[in-house]
Amino acid sequence: MNRLVKQIIYMAPGAIETVQSLLDDRAARSVFVVADRTAYDKSGAKMYIESGLQGRGHAIFDDFAPNPKYADVVRGVKFWHTHPGDIMIAIGGGSAIDMAKLIGICGTHRDQYRELLTGNIPIRDKVAPLIAIPTTAGTGSEATHFAVVYVGEQKYSVAHANVLPDYAIIDPNLTANLPPSITAHTGLDALSQAVESLWSVNATAQSRVFASEALELVLDNLEAAVHRPTPDVRANMCRAAHLSGKAINISKTTAPHAISYTLTSQFGVPHGLAVALTLGAVLIYNNRVVSGDCWHPKGVAQVQKDIREINRLIGVASSEEARKYIDDLISAIGCPTRLRQVGVDTDADLETLAQNVNTERLKNNPRALSQFELRQILREIH
């Protein structure tokens, strides 16, 4: 067990068995569960959670789609108000955990959910403590004080200390039944978060420690996790995902994430793949930073130092080699590396991506990225 500010973490094979004792310690008489139903049924968590729910009132909310949408959140909050609990459990991937986070902060209100989620009124509190139980190795959502929600086609990142789960249970056994495609996509998310955290303008010594270990673990284990998974490999990927979440909890994400959201919301590209598609190209772009377009508070020298460190961790001498390594890894786990391969077919599609880039995340990139330069990157990887 490791203790962080406002969070207790259980990370080990079999950690799911702590659910009942946690509920007992909290003297929880009622439990509100937010579940990705497929993950709940197939991960092996169901038996342990149901055991913990015995003798307690409980309700399960599972009526939401991947990548939480405003209507899903409203439905979840209404369900909470009719089935409140002393504690919440989120079980699933990043979407389920984000949904629980969003219900938690919106549940303190009877209305004005849209205003809260879009940042027009402040977050006050959350309705109950949250236990986050990831069943994928990728998003690290259990480690962050962020939650993503789509209001219409617009993505919003809700950030507040109260969004951070109070408990995180990371059990690699729960990822044993994941299909290779989900292992690949979520692993690419962890890869991208680690790399972006290292070059973010908000990076700190602590975030770099988290991100560096996460990156090394992903590079050493992702291909095996997809094609030849073992318990140790699964455990390493879970640790990588969690550390990448801890890293971006400090540094936030950057240009690849800023570009990715429209790929997911309008073209249906799984989030981790959507981010990784531009990772190598943005690496090259950031490496060419000059004083006139540098956004890093410590200047060009720090950006170049960060890129050199990324190259070193990957085990190459140049950014060009690093990009090739990333693209080769993406291909090796059965994923596409070009936009045209994921349904971005026309110039109009490229324009949609350029026009809808998330400016909030773009501000964290160490090099300014104009619309002209963004279009160049998109055309290059098309």
Question: What this model shows, in words?
Answer:
With 382 residues, the protein is of the alpha/beta class. It folds into two domains: 2-175, Rossmann fold, CATH 3.40.50; 180-380, Up-down Bundle (Dehydroquinate synthase-like, alpha domain), CATH 1.20.1090. Helix content is 52%, strand content 12%. It has 16 helices and nine strands. It has helices at 19-25, 37-42, 45-53, 70-82, 94-106, 113-117, 180-199, 205-227, 231-251, 255-267, 271-287, 300-314, 319-332, 347-355, 359-362, 371-380; strands at residues 2-4, 7-11, 30-35, 57-61, 87-92, 130-134, 146-151, 154-159, 167-170. The strands form two sheets. It has a seven-stranded mixed beta sheet. It has a two-stranded antiparallel ribbon with strand order 7-8. Strand 7 (146-151) and strand 8 (154-159) form a beta hairpin. The protein starts with a strand and ends with a helix. The relative contact order is 0.11.
